[in-house]
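@channel sequence for tomorrow's demo:
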Amino acid sequence: MKTTILAAGLLSCICAVTAGAAEKPEKVSAQTNLDLYATASEAWEMLQKDSSAILVDVRDPVEIKFTGFASPTAIHVPWMIANPRGWSDKKGSWAMVKNPQFEAQLSDRLSRAGVTKDTPIIMMCRSGSSRSAPAVNVLAAQGYRNVWTVVDGFEGSTLQEGRSKGVRAVNGWRNSGLPWSYKVDPAVAWHPSN
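structure tokens (generated this afternoon):
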């Protein structure tokens, strides 16, 4: 009887701790070594509740130019950069190449912002899988312990039916009514030389 009550109590504590976080994504590329996941709305709540929390956007500057920027973003360093000379027939678009300076540039920006290994860092890309998750793993390997990935990213998930099927118009930062703009703060924006 005592074991059952103890187990039930422990389970309710575990549920209470994890209730505020998004579920672990099913896609392997979206999973991180730290297993810290948040929806865009949960990330916004974290930023509101903890003044030390910092939002990092890892999207290409061209994406930001045409889709917008989350207003509370403190750091912008792209994980991947569009290569205008690298057309991909397979994707029907320009190829993306990894930013060779990503780790150094992000480390420098975090240091200048006074971020510690325990500061809540929230990483966001377009959809929360192929860029923010591996960026979390880079920071985890450097000893950062509180790095989250926004599982629905800035643009969110795609519509599954209707005339706009495939358009990113479900959840995500922009579709959740969270503050964003097409205007980017020059002090936050990535510059290839910094």
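heads up for whoever presents: Residues 38 and 150 are 5 Å apart (CA to CA).
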